Structures are given as structure tokens and as C-alpha cells.
Amino acid sequence: MYPELRLFIGGQWRKTADDLAVVNPATEEELGRLPCAARSDLDDALDAAANGFRTWSRTAPRDRANVIRHAAALMRARQEEIAQAITLEHGKPLPQARLEVIRGAEFFEWDAGEVMRTYGRVIPAPKGHKFSVHHQPIGVVAAFSPWNFPMSQPARKISGALASGCSIILKAAEETPAGAILIARAFEDAGLPPGVLNLVFGVPSDISGYLIPQDPVRLVAFTGSTAVGRHLTGLAAQNDTRVLMELGGHAPVIVCEDTDVEAAAVAGAIRKVRNAGQVCTSPTRFFVHDSVFDAFAEAFVTRIKATVVGNGMEPGVEMGPTANDRRVSALAAFIEDARKKGAIVETGGAKYGTQGYFFQPTVLTNVHETALIMREEPFGPVAVLNPVSSLEHAIAQSNSVRYGLAGYAFTNRADYIDRLVDEVEVGNLSINTLEASMPETPFGGVKSSGSGREGGIEGLENYMTVKNVWHSAGIA
Predict the structure, then answer these.
(1) CATH for 196
(2) Is 256 considered catalytic here?
(3) What is the pLDDT of residues 59-72, one digit of tens each?
(4) 370 found inside a domain
């Protein structure tokens, strides 16, 4: 079920002389060879995107929406094919991969509806004059998507660009290319004009360093680490190019004394190991009121220990491998640092098994604020549980990092909820649930977690410009 790996430029699939191995992280077996774009391929993609933009930006919104909906329908019909490819290259359990395919299709379906609602407005004006505001597609988009969600992350970028009338050059992750390739196939089969969607792969710094400064590029859309996002923002600034950045997170979870402690603990443990913890919104820093801390920790550790770890293609598996051996080493270093500073390893803490890039689901308690894991996102199946004396203490701990993407809280008190909404510094706050976003809600961060929003009625704003028109009936 793993697809043939190709670049997609100007409506044509192509191979190159240079390639990279794509590896199954559960078995360490090679799945295929991924072609890398040379500069000539990137030049072709820029030319194709410029031509595609001229066609697509002049296509009626209703016609754009029809193509997008057709492609989304094809993705739904091909759910099993896409899901199996995702599990092979990423390692996540097959049921989670199936849900990711549907989630990706939902992004397209939402934006296909929103393209019909990119309203301008008429502003009251003096006699003989008309003031009007128009929203127009910004131009060619250079987009970069990460490896942790091989289908839904490329879908966010492609969906926003195409619905807005832009063309796009997407550099998807080399570790997990199949999702983006199968999206491109769906749009090819749905009749998308050549050049509107272009897909390239290669050494990330080479691709971004060449594409971003090019004149046709009018927006850089990126999901990934804060460090890389800052670098790309700097490249874009040199050419006065707009950016849409969805960067790192380090999500806090505040557990108040009035909540259902066991239910909150079980929900947190299940969500912590989703995607092997490799989610920018993954709940990681749990700040639990000290009156219920022991009960919460016991229930949380019990559920974490029950996690079924294995190859994502096998029935019943809840957590697959991490993406690569670098993640295993990085997680081990986080835990060793925390242990040296007094943390207790309640369970896990080491590589799992002898084959593949598996890491044990891990729980740390009483982690000192100077530990690296309290400041930096581990991006793996590791949870930190610390007691707090009050809601004020919990909020201060939540806000103590430079990240502000997602945050969570469990409470039923209205006064607590008011304080959480007003004071927790995140772009996405969820109360009594660990869901962070839906296609119809805006998603993005504050502080070092990025700028701009994807999804919701705000999502297409990043891909459009605002033009004010002052029309006088005669020469003034």
C-alpha cells in the first residue's frame, strides 16, 4: 500500500538523480527512495506556480470550491490506502491514521465552504464617491509541513492556499512523504489545473533557502519548531514576504481540586501517548492541586502502564514508535537531566524493545523547575506531574515558558474558568477536554508559538490581501 515516491511539478510527476531513503520506524526497513529537488526543479516549480496562480486566482470561487470538494471526496474514498501508507512511514496505529485522513478531508471541506464567504464590504461615502473593500489571493505560497501528521498537516497548508485562490509549492517532510503525495494525486484526479499545487522534497535548509527569497513567493507558511520558524521568518523578512507560523508548544494541563480526578487522569494519559506524544499540542506539564495530586498521579500512572505499544499495523496497538532514533536519544537525555535534578521516574524512562524507534511511555513526578523538560518540549511520550498549591500557582507555572500554543484545564467552577480564560497565555484553551482544534475553529499560538491562524473564518485571511477601492464618479 506504499505509493511510488515522486515530485509533482506543473501537473507532472518526476524523479531525480538524488534521493533519500524513507524508513518504517517500527521495523527500520526501507519503504522507498524519495527524490530530492535540484535547483532546476525548484525553478520549474516557481514558474509553474506563477502560471498556476494566474489561472487559479481568476477561477470563480464556486468552481474552486467544487474542485476542492471533489478532491476531499476522493481522499475519503481512499481512506484505507492513505492510512496504511501513513502508518508504514510514521508508525502511528492504523485507527489513528484513518482518523487523520478524515481530519485532513475536513480541512478541505471547511475551506471549500469558506471560499464562498470571503466577503468584502461597501463603506458609506460622500455623494459621487464609492468606497469598497476587496479580499484578493496573495499569490504564490511556499509552504513547509512537518512529519508528525503526514496527511493533515499538508492538508492545512494546501487547503488554505487553494481555497483563497493562491498557488502553492509545498515542501513536505522527507520522513513521511506519502500523505502529501496522495493529496496531490487526489487533486490531479479532481481536475486541478497544472501548476496550482506543486510538491517538492529535499534537504530542508536548501529548499527553504532557495525558495523563500524568490520574487514570486508572497507568503511563507510553516509548521515546525520555533528555532526553524525564526530562521524562516528572517529569510522572509529580507524580501518583505508575509509569514504564517505555527511553531512549538509545551502544553500545560491544570487539574483543579473540584474535578473528577480519575476521569481527568485517564483522559490525560490516553492523550499523552497519542501519536507517541509527537504533537505540538500534546499535554505534557500537568499541574495538579496538591489536595488531589496523589489520587491523580496513581490513576495516571496506572493508565500509562496499561498502554499497548507496538507496530501500528497490529490490532489493539495504542502507541507506535517515535519518528527516528534521534527522538529516542533526545527523550533519554530529557529524562536523565530531570532525574539528576531530583525527579522521580514513576514508569518508563528508556528505549522500548530491540527493533524500531520505540520509547517507553514515561511519567515523571516532582520535577524541578530548572530541569530542561520544564522549559523545552520533549515531543515524545513523556508526562510531567507536579503538585501546585492554588489556581494562581498553576497559572503562573503554565505561563512560565516561552511557548503558548495550547493549554488545558479540568474544573467545573465558573470563577476558575473565568480566570483561566483571562490569564492562561495560549492561543488555544480547552476546558474539560483535551481536543485543541477543529476545522471550523482558528488554530495558532502566542509568544514563541507562532503568528497567524489556520482554520475557522480567520484561516483564509493569511492567504489574502485587502484592497481598498475609492471610486469617484468624476475627476476631483
Answers:
(1) 3.40.605.10
(2) no
(3) 999 999 999 999 99
(4) yes
